[in-house]
Structure formats: structure tokens, C-alpha cells
């Protein structure tokens, strides 16, 4: 069975559908031809036998198409799970960083602005311990929803791991990044979240880093955002902190 699946994976469902139809048409044509050539009683017998094989061919063709579709759906599901976080449905860390690599390269090439926000759901571990994992998961989903309402269409949102979300803001300068981060913080804290008649206060700490010429890679920008996030936590949480301000080359605007 596994060998057949490997064979099916090498071709598209359209290919196998075409092959199955060709088999069915060929079987019917062969059955008709045999019956006409033999004639009489022998012709009827030959026609019956050939039609039996034609029917078997159609059944087999249907099975091949069905199996090919199952294989295609399985492959699509595997690809989806490889890039998406199972809880939030957002891009996972690996896929997010792949997308940010492209944005980072574009910013460096054309001198465009861009910003990375690392967002930590405050005290999520404590909530998990006192109210349970289901409550913590539901709270993270609510935080994700509230963050999403503040973003623009081209902005990238992902689950970065554990209690952390990540946002990349294309064409966003340092002041714009700080404004966006503050909007997110306020939106998350705008109202308590209710879990089984218990009001849970949701807040986030946010670290901001923006693209600048001193960054050698996306890893450097992530490190700066992580440092800024740690500063926000040390400042008491529920606040925004940014990385160091560094000038651009060629007299361009400064960027964080």
C-alpha cells in the first residue's frame, strides 16, 4: 500500500483522473470491438466478459481517483500543519521567520522601514496553574483576537512560542511601531476576559525592534526585540519598550 501511495504522490490528481478515464474508455471500446468481431452466441459471451472487465476497470478507476484525492488532501494537511500553530491557527515561529526574512531583505534592499513586535501574554503560566490549561489557552486565543483587530492587512501575525506572539509591520518607522504597539497593549487590556464566570485580566508586555543598517540578519532584529521585551517585563509588565536607536547610513532617518 505504501508503495502505491508513493507512486500516486508523484503525479497530480488530474493526471490519475485522466488515466482512469482512459482505462474506462479503452475497456468499453475493447468490449464493443470483441463483440462485433465474434458475432452470434460467441460474440455475446465475449461481449459479456469484456463488459465485465470494463466495469471492473471503472471501479478500479474510481478507487484510484479516490485514493489520489486522499493522498493530495493528506499532503495539503501536512503542509498546513507544518506552517501553522495548532492552537491559534496563526503561522508558527519557523514559517513567520521565513516570511520576515523576505521582508527584511526588501527593507535592506530598498531602504524601507519595518518593525518587529514581540508580545508576551502577562502571567499566562500563573493563570494556567490557578485556573487550568483550558483557561490559559482560551485567554491566549482572546489575546490573539484582540491583537488581530489592531493590525493592517499586510501586517504579519504569528505565534512565536509559549505565551508569545510576534508581529512584523512593513513600511513602519520607529514612531509608527511604538504607536502600533501601544494600540495593541490598550486593546488587549480594554476589558477583562470571562472564563466560567471568572473575570481574568488580560495584559501584554511588548518589545519593539525596527530594521536598521546595523542589523546583520533577522536574528539580530529578533535579539533586539527580545531584549526590549525583557525590559518591558522588568518594568512591571503591561507596557511597551523599544530597542536602541541607531542611525541609518547615508543620512537616512534614524531607526530603532
Task: State the share of residues found in helices, binned by percent.
Answer: 55-70%
Distance between the termini: 56 Å
Unreliable stretches, pLDDT < 50, 5 or more residues? Answer: 76-81, 249-256
- The name CATH uses for the topology of the largest domain is Alpha-Beta Plaits
Number of helices: 8
| CATH homologous group name of the largest domain | Reverse transcriptase/Diguanylate cyclase domain
| Biggest pleated sheet | 5 strands, mixed
CATH class of the largest domain: Alpha Beta
Strand percentage lies at: 5-15%
Radius of gyration from the alpha-carbon trace, in angstroms: 29 Å
- Average of pLDDT: 81
| CATH-level-2 architecture of the largest domain | 2-Layer Sandwich
Strand order of the largest sheet: 2-3-1-6-7
Estimate the global geometry from the Cα principal axes: elongated
Please report the total strand number as a whole number. Answer: 7
Q: What structural category do the secondary elements indicate?
A: alpha+beta
Number of domains: 2
Amino acid at each position: 500500500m505504501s508503495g502505491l501511495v508513493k507512486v500516486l504522490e508523484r503525479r497530480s490528481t488530474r493526471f490519475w483522473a485522466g488515466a482512469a478515464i482512459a482505462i474506462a474508455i479503452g475497456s468499453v471500446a475493447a468490449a464493443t470491438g470483441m463483440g462485433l468481431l465474434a458475432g452470434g452466441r460467441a460474440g455475446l459471451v465475449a461481449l459479456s466478459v469484456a463488459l465485465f472487465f470494463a466495469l471492473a476497470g471503472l471501479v478500479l478507476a474510481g478507487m484510484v481517483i479516490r485514493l489520489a484525492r486522499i493522498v493530495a488532501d493528506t499532503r495539503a494537511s501536512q503542509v498546513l500543519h507544518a506552517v501553522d500553530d495548532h492552537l491559534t491557527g496563526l503561522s508558527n515561529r519557523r514559517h513567520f521567520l521565513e516570511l520576515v526574512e523576505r521582508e527584511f531583505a526588501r527593507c535592506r534592499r530598498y531602504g524601507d522601514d519595518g518593525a518587529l513586535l514581540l508580545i508576551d501574554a502577562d502571567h499566562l503560566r500563573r493563570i494556567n496553574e490557578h485556573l487550568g490549561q483550558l483557561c490559559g489557552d482560551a485567554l491566549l486565543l482572546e489575546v490573539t483576537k484582540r491583537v488581530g483587530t489592531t493590525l493592517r492587512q499586510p501586517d504579519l501575525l504569528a505565534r512565536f512560542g509559549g505565551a508569545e506572539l510576534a508581529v512584523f509591520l512593513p513600511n513602519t518607522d520607529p514612531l509608527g511601531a511604538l504607536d502600533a504597539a501601544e494600540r495593541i497593549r490598550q486593546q488587549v487590556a480594554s476589558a477583562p476576559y470571562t472564563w466560567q464566570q471568572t473575570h481574568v485580566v488580560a495584559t501584554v508586555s511588548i518589545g519593539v525592534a525596527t530594521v536598521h543598517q546595523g542589523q546583520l540578519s533577522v536574528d539580530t532584529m529578533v535579539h533586539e526585540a527580545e531584549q526590549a521585551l525583557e525590559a518591558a517585563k522588568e518594568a512591571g509588565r503591561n507596557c511597551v519598550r523599544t530597542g536602541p536607536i541607531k542611525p541609518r547610513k547615508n543620512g537616512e532617518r534614524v531607526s530603532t
